[in-house]
Amino acid sequence: MTSFSFEQIGTIHSPYKEKFAVPRQPGLVQDGGGELHLHAPYNQPEAVRGLEDFSHLWVMFIFHQTMDGGWRPTVRPPRLGGNIRTGVFATRSTFRPNPLGMSLVELKGIHCQGQSVILQLGSLDLVDGTPVVDIKPYLPFAESHPEARAGFAQHAPKADMPVEFLPQAESQLAKHAGKYPHLRRFITQVLGQDPRPAYRKGESAERDYAVRLLEFNVRWRVVGSLNQVMSLDED
């Protein structure tokens, strides 16, 4: 079999500091944008000349946090409740023969200064530090097919799980409102998608969770069908 090698061209900077709670797809969390920092020798303004004329990009990246787990011929998609096995090539599972992923993201701007070339991106589904191996412009005429069908993900997942902030979390939101004016909305949209593992979603017992978002360790409790945010502790 033929093997190939790739060069990392850049790194993603995003508010998601760990894999847990990263949205299943881009565009689901309004304030979940980030940046792509290009590395030398690809950090040249000439390399992105004309890219500003495109509104969206395909970002090709490496599933670096799960690549050591190898591939699996069948996986359990979360959208099917985590109980039904489907062929890996019929899913977007991270456990692939080659740990390659692709994500369609909005290009909000390009910043070039000295040796720095940074692409400012809209809503992401990528963890902070994700290695990027290529980017390509999105072509609406060729890649937008409204009549296309999807086996088990024809529509966006529900993101309506209620979220409330307990007094300590409310106080911390107020403290950081100057730097993060949309922090409440960001956390609400992330938790509103119920990031728990699929096998946990039917549980009736209360359970505490935590996730690192931005510079915070967000702690919350699931009570029935409600998320209660207890605290936003600084890392």
TrEMBL record:
Cited PROSITE patterns: TSAA_1, TSAA_2
InterPro entries in alphabetical order: TrmO-like_N, TrmO_C, UPF0066_cons_site, YaeB-like, YaeB-like_sf, YaeB_N_sf
PANTHER family in the cross-refs: TRNA (ADENINE(37)-N6)-METHYLTRANSFERASE
Keyword S-adenosyl-L-methionine: yes
Gene3D superfamilies, per database record: YaeB-like (3.30.2310.10)
Key words, A-Z: Methyltransferase, RNA-binding, S-adenosyl-L-methionine, Transferase, tRNA processing
Gene giving rise to this polypeptide: tsaA
GO biological process, one term: tRNA processing
Domain (TsaA-like) ranges: 6-147
CDD domains per the UniProt record, alphabetical: UPF0066
Family under the similarity heading: Belongs to the tRNA methyltransferase O family.
Domain of life: Bacteria
Pfam families, per the entry: TrmO_C, TrmO_N
Catalysed conversion reaction: N(6)-L-threonylcarbamoyladenosine(37) in tRNA + S-adenosyl-L-methionine = N(6)-methyl,N(6)-L-threonylcarbamoyladenosine(37) in tRNA + S-adenosyl-L-homocysteine + H(+)
Gene Ontology MF: a single term: tRNA (L-threonylcarbamoyladenosine(37)-C2) methyltransferase activity
Complex and partners: Homodimer.
NCBIfam families referenced in this protein's UniProt entry, alphabetically: tRNA_TsaA
Lineage: Bacteria, Pseudomonadati, Pseudomonadota, Gammaproteobacteria, Enterobacterales
Protein name: tRNA (adenine(37)-N6)-methyltransferase
